[in-house]
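Re: weekly structure request thread

Next one in the queue (242 aa):
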Amino acid sequence: MTENKQLIERLFSAGAHFGFAKSRRHPTVVPYLFGTKQGTDIFDLEKTEELIAAAKQHVSEAAANGQTVLFVGTKDEVSVLVKDTATKLGMPYVTNRWIGGMLTNFTEIKKRITRLLDLTAQGESGELERKYTKKERVVIGREFEKLSFNFGGIKDMERPPSLMVVVDPRHDAIAVREACDLGIKVLGITSSDGDLANIDYPVLVNDALRGSVSLVLDELADAFEEGSAQQKPKEDATPEKK
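Done, posted below.
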């Protein structure tokens, strides 16, 4: 059995071939459909396999070039999967809530991240205990929780990413729009209701089933790790003194 055949069978077992009702179909996904069964769109898994292969290639290249890949998925069904994948790869993620301007106004967002890092450092060093009263620490604690919720996944992101992987681009349309505005490539794991117009690398599967999304994310994670293994160490730009 070929590797492609194995992937197609795994996709089928995960229910990845089930789209949504035909009435929810976005016209841009038509080329990737096998047909419709009892009113539900069915994906052509051979084409999905080709899309996954292309997506993996781009993820691998990004990793090999040392580029940052931002993982986005704020929908309840997939947020944990997205966070776990990004954490495993040491990449930034947004899984709680997309704050408007996270990319397009990154300079301002960076100020909030700096505040989060500052509070984290003060807490770890015991400075908060020494500098503030109990009442003040309660207020600061609430601020810290809010900052962590909104920006914890991107606290180590120094600049906008080169590639965004987003699960259900329709749900996180603002994130996709900001990426497009900045020329950041978008890899979208989407179902039959997704608009592919702003997706550079689409992967058509059922984006509401955890098993389906998990399978694709695992494939992308493998590709990222393979690319990272090929990354060349950066040469010291400072010439050696003779």
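The mean pLDDT is 93. Strands lie at 18-21, 33-37, 40-43, 69-72, 93-94, 163-167, 185-190, 201-204.
Next request, please.
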